[in-house]
């Protein structure tokens, strides 16, 4: 029987890895990898890893722009008043902290959103724009729940609107391309 309950006739028995040729082993490994990446767990992990990498880059970029902050809290001393070697040491330490913090946040949000979206899509058995909007709402509300119900509502609306905008933009590629001067 197949996944949908339709009888497809007798199926050949699966070979063990020792019975397969190297080519068959490679094909089986690739098939298992693709199946894993298409599962909710695989999508969630990839979203977390991608979000972590993007967040790290974003944090590094933003930290490199903030070079004029005072150091410490007791005497207000600017970094420009320190020796160059100490300035570099403090800058790189600050960039590392900000980059890691941003990476954790982006990775966490990516994992939560992707996991919720995949779960909703699996439950609804449909792939449409409502999955992303619902996942955005749940993710936004979940991230803001500690701040109270008003913050959860705003988080829900904000993430849902952002998700809708991204999905509409990405789905607009299916439309035919505009005419240009070269096609005439």
């Amino acid at each position: 029987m197949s996944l949908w309950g339709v009888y497809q006739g007798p199926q050949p028995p699966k070979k063990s890895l020792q019975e397969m040729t190297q080519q068959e082993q490679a094909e089986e490994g690739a098939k298992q990898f693709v199946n894993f990446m298409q599962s909710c767990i695989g999508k969630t992990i990839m979203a977390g890893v991608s979000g972590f990498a993007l967040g790290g880059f974003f944090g590094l970029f933003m930290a490199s722009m903030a070079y004029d902050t005072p150091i410490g809290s007791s005497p207000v001393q600017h970094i420009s008043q320190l020796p160059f070697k100490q300035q570099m040491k403090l800058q790189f330490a600050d960039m590392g902290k900000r980059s890691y913090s941003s990476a954790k946040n982006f990775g966490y949000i990516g994992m939560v959103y992707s996991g919720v979206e995949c779960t909703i899509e699996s439950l609804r058995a449909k792939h449409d724009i409502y999955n992303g909007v619902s996942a955005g709402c749940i993710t936004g509300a979940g991230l803001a729940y500690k701040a109270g119900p008003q913050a959860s509502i705003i988080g829900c609306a904000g993430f849902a609107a952002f998700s809708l905008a991204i999905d509409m933009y990405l789905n607009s590629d299916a439309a035919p391309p505009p005419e240009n001067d070269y096609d005439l």
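The mean pLDDT is 83. The first helix runs from residue 22 to 37.
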